[in-house]
Write a structure and sequence with these properties.
single chain; about 190 residues; alpha+beta; 4-stranded mixed β-sheet; 10 strands; about 35% helix; binds manganese (II) ion
């Protein structure tokens, strides 16, 4: 089983996170930020992975530390679960429509970190979640998982739809990238490692 469990405690957040790439259950997300729980649940379900997240964060400040730190720990856990990445597809791309919105994720589990984020929000908040934290989350995820991550909203209006399409597309693209491909022998790189 490709899985990892991380506990991280700082003065700002206390996080317990478990991920399993080879099981779809359980999915249990409790960050204290309702909209973020909704996004992480979609990410896990559409990524067909088990994800448990429990956060005790400094929400009396705002949701920034909670969202960014979950991105950091999720990235670290996924990287650990992937191990040497032998036999995986490595790349994944997904387009996800949500009514009037069309979002896209294209990613490479290359061992190098990069984020391209091409999405503009017109509403500063969704519940107690600041929409600018969508980019903060994916930045932390990309850098700690050491992946090249491109996110784009091709068109759309509704901010809930835009965010949701990016989390769903990233789950689906990640599933494609982590899937073991029997045609791939060893690591899918001419360099010999990822
Ligand atoms: Mn929704």
């Amino acid at each position: 089983m490709r899985q990892a469990s991380i506990e991280r405690n700082t003065a700002e957040t206390k996080i317990k996170l478990k991920v399993n790439l080879d099981s779809q259950e359980p999915v249990d997300i409790q960050t204290g930020v309702g909209f973020f729980d909704h996004m992480l649940t979609l990410f896990a379900r559409h990524g067909r992975l088990s994800l448990e997240v429990a956060v005790d964060g400094d929400l009396w400040v705002d949701s920034h530390h909670t969202v960014e730190d979950v991105g950091i720990v999720l990235g670290q856990a996924l990287r650990e679960a992937l191990g040497d990445k032998a036999g995986i597809n490595r790349y994944g791309t997904s387009f996800v429509p949500m009514d009037e919105t069309l979002g896209m994720t294209s990613l490479d589990l290359s061992g190098r970190s990069y984020l391209v984020f091409d999405c503009e929000f017109t509403n500063p908040r969704l519940g107690n979640f600041d929409t600018e934290l969508v980019e903060e989350f994916f930045q932390a995820l990309a850098f700690n998982l050491q992946m090249n991550l491109h996110l784009k909203i091709l068109h759309g209006k509704n901010n809930h739809h835009k965010s949701e399409s990016l989390f769903k597309a990233t789950g689906r693209a990640l599933r494609e990238a982590v899937t073991i491909n029997p045609e791939i022998h060893g690591v899918n790189s001419t360099k010999g490692m990822l």
